[in-house]
Amino acid sequence: MAHRMWKHTCGCDRSYIAWGSEKCPRCGKPGEFAGWSRSVVEMMGHSERRTGYPLFTDQTEYGWRHYGADRYGLPPLKHECAKCGGSGLLDIGNGQDYKSCDQCHGDGGLPNYPPDVMNKYQQMALELRARDLDARSGGSGGRSKP
Length: 146
Ligand SMILES: [Zn+2]
Ligand SMILES: [Zn+2]
Known about the structure:
This protein is of the alpha+beta class. The protein has helices at 40-51, 115-137, and strands at residues 2-7, 17-19, 32-38, 56-60, 63-67, 78-80, 89-92, 97-100, 109-111. Strand 7 and strand 8 form a beta hairpin. The protein is flat. The site of one zinc ion has 7 residues, from loops.
């Protein structure tokens, strides 16, 4: 499920792009169609497909924290698709409808490496993540030297 985005230039709100509302909620002036966007939940899965790495989620005392494996200094496995600008969606008839981008098959990203290399990096990401979690949960004085 994708949402239309509208650009509001009436100046009522500081944010230019409004999600899913064609008219400005304050003055009712119609905005300008600004393309398609996926829902937040989809965006999370989407970012995963876009970077090629799993998205890790931790619960902290401040709430949920999401981060990709790029945090571990691994190279990006994909690059942004130029045709759809990374959204994975192409507009049909100026907001009438949308379709999945045929260049990236709706991923928003195109692979930088052959599948076996990508697999290796994804595996490395999971191992680094596991080590990271170990280091944090074994926080009984930090005595984790071999
Ligand atoms: Zn307005
Ligand atoms: Zn694309």
